[in-house]
């Protein structure tokens, strides 16, 4: 199947959350960045740096968890890890476009983001890679998207309450990118090995 054919197909398989979650998070981040008070600006900065990465990570976990027939995919010639990676490219692409538009609009409207646009994009990229990689890994290991939500929450709180106090966001970006890539690679390898957990069983699996 050509790229023109599989792109709409995989978008349908990913579900609407792959599009809706990043867009809603971007709107929330933009609204939070409009605050003028010191406390509001601090909260806005936190939402701006974390909302879109967290939403993308949850969308990725949902994409992995919603597959009703993983055993069938493992019996096909195409590697299942390749299929999952292809589907994850949909929320990833939506997030890249959304982040670029968000930062551009913030810069064009003069909203104070506490960062240069390039630095903000770098921080968003690092945290998105880390949270998404962790969410995909946790979903495949546990067979459910629920642990992924807990892991995303824990990582966001760690960043906001601990790391941001001592390490600038741009310095966090490269280690986060590397860690996120490693987690994603390990998760996809686990799919093909059939080890370290399996995708969640659905009601269809239970009835068959």
Report on this model:
- The chain has 208 residues and is mainly alpha-helical.
- Helices cover 81% and strands 0% of the residues.
- The protein contains 9 helices and no strands.
- Helix 5 packs antiparallel against helix 6 and helix 6 packs parallel to helix 8.
- The longest helix is centred in the middle third of the chain and has 30 residues.
- The radius of gyration is 18 Å and the shape is globular.
- It starts with a helix and ends with a helix.
- The C terminus is likely disordered.
Number of separate strands: 0
Mean pLDDT equals 81
Write down the secondary-structure element order. Answer: HHHHHHHHH
Q: Indicate the percent of residues in helices.
A: over 70%
From the structure above, extract its key features.
globular; mainly alpha
List the helices and strands and how they pair.
Elements: H1 3-14, H2 17-32, H3 38-65, H4 70-74, H5 80-109, H6 117-142, H7 146-166, H8 169-193, H9 203-207
Helix pairs in contact: 1-5, 2-3, 2-5, 3-5, 3-6, 3-7, 5-6, 5-8, 6-7, 6-8
What can be said about this structure in brief?
Helices cover 81% and strands 0% of the residues. The protein is mostly helical and 208 residues long.
């Amino acid at each position: 199947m050509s790229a023109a054919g599989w792109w709409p197909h995989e978008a349908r398989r990913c579900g609407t959350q792959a599009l809706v979650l990043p867009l809603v998070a971007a709107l929330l981040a933009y609204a939070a960045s409009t605050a003028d008070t010191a406390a509001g600006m601090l909260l806005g900065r936190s939402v701006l740096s974390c909302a879109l990465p967290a939403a993308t990570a949850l969308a990725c976990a949902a994409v992995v968890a919603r597959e009703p027939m993983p055993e069938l995919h493992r019996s096909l010639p195409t590697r299942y890890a390749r299929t999952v990676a292809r589907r994850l490219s949909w929320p990833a692409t939506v997030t890249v476009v959304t982040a670029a538009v968000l930062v551009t609009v913030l810069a064009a409207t003069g909203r104070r983001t506490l960062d240069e646009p390039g630095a903000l994009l770098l921080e968003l990229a690092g945290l998105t890679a880390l949270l998404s990689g962790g969410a995909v890994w946790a979903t495949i290991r546990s067979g459910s998207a629920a642990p992924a939500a807990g892991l995303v929450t824990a990582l966001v709180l760690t960043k906001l309450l601990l790391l941001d106090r001592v390490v600038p966001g741009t310095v966090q970006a490269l280690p986060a990118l590397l860690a996120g890539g490693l987690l994603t690679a390990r998760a996809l390898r686990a799919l093909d090995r059939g080890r370290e957990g399996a995708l969640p069983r659905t009601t269809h699996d239970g009835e068959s």
